[in-house]
Amino acid sequence: MFIVPESEIAGLITPEDAFAAVEATFAAMARGDAYNFPVVREALGEGRQYGFKSGLDRAGAIMGVKAGGYFPGNAAKGMINHQSSVFLFDPDTGRPIAMVGGNLLTALRTAAASAISIDRLARKDAKVLGMVGAGHQAQFQLRAAAKVRDFERVIAWNYHPDMLPTLGAVAAELGLPFEAVELDGMRAADVIVTITSAPAASLLDAHVSPGTHLACMGTDTKGKQEVEPALLARARVFTDEVAQSVTIGEAQHAVAGGLIAESDITPIGAVIAGLAEGRQSDDQITLFDGTGVGLQDLAVAGAAVRLAQETGVAVTVTI
Ligand code: NAD
User: Ligand 1: distance of its center to the CA of 128 in Å?
Assistant: First the structure.
């Protein structure tokens, strides 16, 4: 089997590679060729979380698991708090194929999902990108979004305003003017990415103009929330996986409140595969509830293994 160390990932896989791999697996999910296995997630005490996201993509010939979690004591030990590794297996024989560092891949596959939603659902003439959130993932989100539309400027709000200059530096690197705004300033945005760990809605229905596309990427657990549920009732809602959207995604609140039903939510893979309509008018609000599925991790890990084999950086071990 191959080992692709975390330290090699940045030199191997580009945002474009991640976009292509995640788009293919979303389409395979919609066609019934790929599915996610039930997620295991355990609280270990003292704020530590550990779990397993796994699945099978028959079309991509990939089966495997991402094992990972959140360890708040790591920063004091000089490590990042989120730690994950991906293990791939041959779907025909069950033999292990590869172990791949999963930390950077997680950021790339999450940003890819958001960018796919913008590419498929945002108005073609979108010019203003709104960012709600300015943490670790936000930088990847901004870079990926900038690849799929010709944005002319970025406006941003963050609960902790002191974190905004780091995001502003990424915008500057991309050649985009950057301005910190209050939440009601988001009315100027054509696309809004939310990527926070908030426990309650920050962005309200009144902060969003008709025709906006939202990629709500931060809510991946029961109890997190980024936007007011009324916004989902006003929008056409899409997701990576409906089962996750209604339980751990942003839609959990609107569904629990009876504002929308599970049947109102369209898998983005169905749009990619030509099985469902995306945006229906320039005035429509579209909202992608990105919850993060195991198949995204397997797709980008598979791409990393292929590239590592081609470039000779994969370490081969016999087990
Ligand atoms: P981070 O810790 O680096 O940043 C957290 C962000 O949330 C910051 O912008 C912070 O200011 C903001 N925030 C914290 N408390 C808040 C509050 N009460 N109200 C509003 N904002 C608040 O985290 P990160 O790595 O950037 O991850 C952000 C979120 O994305 C997390 O919830 C994480 O679990 C989630 N995530 C989702 C996926 C997915 O596939 N959907 C993948 C990775 C991470």
Answer: 22
From the CA of 196, give the closest atom in ligand 1. 7
Distance of CA 291 from the midpoint of ligand 1 (Å)? 12
Domain assignments of the chain as residue spans, ordered by start: 2-106+295-316, 123-292
- Superfamily of domain 123-292 in CATH is NAD(P)-binding Rossmann-like Domain (3.40.50.720)
- 195 alpha carbon – ligand 1 mean position (Å): 5
Instruction: Compute the C-alpha angle 101/107/109, nearest 5°.
Output: 90
pLDDT at 80: 85
Q: What is the pLDDT of residues 66-104, one digit of tens each?
A: 999 989 889 899 888 889 999 999 999 999 999 999 999
Task: Using most ligand atoms within 8 A of CB, pick from 114, 132, 170, 197 the residue to mutate for ligand 1.
Answer: 197
Task: Give the CA-trace dihedral at 183, 184, 185, 186, to 10 degrees.
Answer: 70
Residues lower than pLDDT 70 in the chain: none
pTM of the model: 0.97
Which tens digit of pLDDT belongs to each residue from 126-165?
Answer: 999 999 999 999 999 999 999 999 999 999 999 999 999 9
Non-local (6+) Cβ contacts of 171 within 8 A are 142, 154, 177, 178
Q: Is 66 a catalytic residue?
A: yes
Q: Whose CA is nearest to atom 12 of ligand 1?
A: 196
**2-106+295-316 homologous superfamily:** ornithine cyclodeaminase, domain 1 (3.30.1780.10)
> Both tokens of residue 194?
């939310």
Which amino acid residue places its CA nearest to atom 39 of ligand 1?
Answer: 292
C-alpha 135 to ligand 1 mean position (Å): 6
Whether residue 131 contacts residue 161, with contact meaning beta carbons closer than 8 Å, is answered with no
Which tokens belong to 142? Answer: 């901004």
